[in-house]
Amino acid sequence: MAALVTSCGDEPKSPASPKLSTTPATPGTPASYPPETTDWDVAGSLTGSAKESAQFAAETEAKRLRFLAANDFSTDLLNSYNERVIAAHKVTKYDWAGWHVGIPSTGGELVRATSSTPAANGQEITLCEFNTPGEFSVVDGHLKTEPEMPNARVIGASTVTVEETTQPSGTNSSYTKTPRMLIVAFGYIDKRDAVNQCDKFAPEPFIQATPSPTSHPK
Predict the structure, then answer these.
(1) End-to-end Cα spacing for the chain
(2) In sequence order, what are the beta bridge partners of 172?
(3) Which residues, at least 6 apart from 77, have a Cβ–Cβ distance to it below 8 Å?
(4) Residue 58: in which H helix or E strand, if any?
(5) Per residue in 3-32, pLDDT tens?
(6) Number of C-beta neighbours around residue 103 at 10 A
(7) How far is CA 104 from CA 29, 135, 150, 161, 211, in A?
(8) Which is deepest, 47, 161, 173, 203, by most CB within 10 Å?
(9) DSSP character at residue 10
(10) How far, in Å, CA of 86 to CA of 7, rounded?
(11) HEC string for 147-187
(12) Of 71, 51, 170, nearest in space to 112 by CA
């Protein structure tokens, strides 16, 4: 048997190391989604001046939610809401910043005015918020259902009082010569009562759908 002999000057060579790229990898672009939307309507049982006040209330609340949920601060959305409420109830950039946590949102909800009751100088409107087509957070290009309401139909409810008034609005510090419609008061409805009061007014069929991306990951 022949012996294998290796001389000191003829050491076995190590396998060649793989070449490392000096060009950094380009991270993929995550999918993007349309901004969250808020629609509104009025229950079919309301008519006349009650319906008119209910329409004003529901549209105003939808404007508030659009402003707060916007991924970027918008002066136009701010003023669009503030011109419909008395000065004491106006919203500010700080309200948007406190609501907005830096995570984009998509999908949407529905604000529905369900009842109108005569108040001292106007109408008290009950507003129900429904989780349709559904609210989602966008995290690294992926949709996440809001954890506190994965299958909820009713998001919340409140009351607002609408009056014809000359009081200053959130965009004008002066009294007006002629009355115009403004929201002058708000009321809170707790979660359990909100479900009890609102679920019977939920849209049928109740549609929840994942929004389609506006761009796809690369």
Answers:
(1) 61
(2) 169
(3) 63, 66, 67, 70
(4) helix 48-69
(5) 433 334 444 444 444 444 444 444 456 678
(6) 10
(7) 15, 11, 18, 32, 13
(8) 161
(9) G
(10) 96
(11) CCCCCCCEEEEEEEEEEEECCCECCECCCCCCCEEEEEEEE
(12) 51
Q: Is 124 helix (H, G, I), strand (E, B) or coil?
A: strand
pTM: 0.82
Q: How far apart (Å, rounded) are the C-alpha atoms in residues 70 and 104? A: 8
Sign of CA dihedral 201, 41, 131, 209: positive
Rounded Cα distance, 107 and 147, in Å: 15
Q: What residue type is assigned to position 184 of the chain?
A: V
pLDDT in tens, 107-157: 999 999 999 999 988 999 999 999 999 988 888 878 887 655 556 899 999
Sign of CA dihedral 105, 108, 114, 120: positive
Distance of CA 195 to the CA centre of its chain: 19
Contact 112, 38 (CB under 8 A): no
Is the bond into 203 cis (omega within 30 degrees of 0)? no
